[in-house]
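Q: Please design a sequence for this.
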């Protein structure tokens, strides 16, 4: 009997798991008559910010806008550079260009797939020629695992350059017991449906514990209005969180801890059952709570493994197949670290994301394990 196709991710399963509550939340908003920035958004902003260890949450249209507004709140635009990584969703780099600043792409530490503190130290000590001053550092907590926040925050403090954490994949991750998102001056989140906390549409949030930045962000997201509606104190944009998504996200936030625990349990099974194969499992660092937005296996035979899994009806993904500096839109025109991007380029050819979502059943995890074991030789 042919078994069902197993997707790599399944946001519909997350909806079905809380269907009655989500449907009730939607009905409540529809009846309420307020559809943008109302009581649901306000409640979700404070509930989410508290869960992430921050004083303020500012709901915005999506995770890319969250980065754009965080950069703008610091006055970052043309004539400024922003250090980030090339091994990320293109959104991180697109946001930096959207404000008119110049991205400077750094290499990753290959064990964690996150910003290499040594590469950051080097460009802060000796900024590349012809590059404007580095005005912000944007590490990405990729796949759900925090970057080395101790090292990065120390460098940010030493050189007085603000740190903005791209937490789009890391809702609920922790570094040395503290929530990812509470280390930088601001953190940005996405609620794209497949993220660890996903809406049923677009959504995003900036979190901060700085009162002045929070006020600035609230103005920027709505045309620069501050004291008076319809009077712009400065030029802003329209990027708001809608009430339907906020109400849905409140229902799902209540389950974030349990969902992350399930992701970690699935990762533990993958780790235990795939040990000894000629493929590298994600590094588990006791200082970092990895919430497994993705479970990424690394193998020199990645493409063959992917084909074998596809033949067995198992969906996989590659996050990300082409580093940002090598994508057609950026090739040859984007600043990269003088020390190069060797670890980034090597990872892009070998990473493979296995099925990972909280509703994945134990029998389905077994199916993935059996298929990987059949396809990968012992190491
Ligand atoms: C998803 C994602 C974003 C962008 O979020 P959107 O809501 O899709 O705009 C930014 N950075 C990273 C690392 C992401 O994974």
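A: Design:
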């Amino acid at each position: 009997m042919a078994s069902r196709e197993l997707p790599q991710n399944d946001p519909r399963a997350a909806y079905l798991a809380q269907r009655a509550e989500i449907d009730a939340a939607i009905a409540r908003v529809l009846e309420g008559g307020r559809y943008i920035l109302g009581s649901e958004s306000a409640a979700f902003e404070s509930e989410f910010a508290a869960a992430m260890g921050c004083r303020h949450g500012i709901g915005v249209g999506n995770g890319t806008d969250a980065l754009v507004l965080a950069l703008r709140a610091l006055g970052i635009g043309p004539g400024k550079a922003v250090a980030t990584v090339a091994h990320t969703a293109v959104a991180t780099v697109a946001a930096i260009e959207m404000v008119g600043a110049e991205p400077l792409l750094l290499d990753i530490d290959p064990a964690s797939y996150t910003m290499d503190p040594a590469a950051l130290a080097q460009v802060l000590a000796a900024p590349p020629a012809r590059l404007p001053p580095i005005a912000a550092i944007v590490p990405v907590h990729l796949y759900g695992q925090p970057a080395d926040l101790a090292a990065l925050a120390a460098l940010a403090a030493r050189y007085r350059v603000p740190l903005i954490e791209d937490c789009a994949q890391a809702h609920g991750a922790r570094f040395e017991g503290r929530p990812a998102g509470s280390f930088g001056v601001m953190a940005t989140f996405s609620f794209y449906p497949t993220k660890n906390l996903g809406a049923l549409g677009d959504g995003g949030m900036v979190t901060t514990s700085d009162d002045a930045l929070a006020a600035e962000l609230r103005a920027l997201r709505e045309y620069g209005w501050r004291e008076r509606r319809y009077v712009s104190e400065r030029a802003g944009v329209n990027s708001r969180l809608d009430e339907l998504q906020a109400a849905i996200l409140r229902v799902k936030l209540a389950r974030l801890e349990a969902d992350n625990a399930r992701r970690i349990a699935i990762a533990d099974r993958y780790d235990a059952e795939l040990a000894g194969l000629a493929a590298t499992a994600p590094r588990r660092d006791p200082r970092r709570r990895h919430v497994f937005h993705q479970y990424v296996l690394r193998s020199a035979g990645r493409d063959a493994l992917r084909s074998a899994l596809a033949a067995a009806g198992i969906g996989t993904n590659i996050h990300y197949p082409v580093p940002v500096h090598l994508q057609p839109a950026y090739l040859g025109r984007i600043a990269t670290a003088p020390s190069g991007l060797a670890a980034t380029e090597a990872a892009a050819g070998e990473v493979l994301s296995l099925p990972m979502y909280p509703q994945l059943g134990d029998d389905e995890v077994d199916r993935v394990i059996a298929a990987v074991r059949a396809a990968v030789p012992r190491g």
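Q: Thanks. Anything notable?
A: The pocket of pyridoxal-5'-phosphate is lined by residues 62-64, 88-89, 91-92, 140, 166, 168-169, 190, 192, 202, 204 (CB under 6 Å). The radius of gyration is 21 Å.
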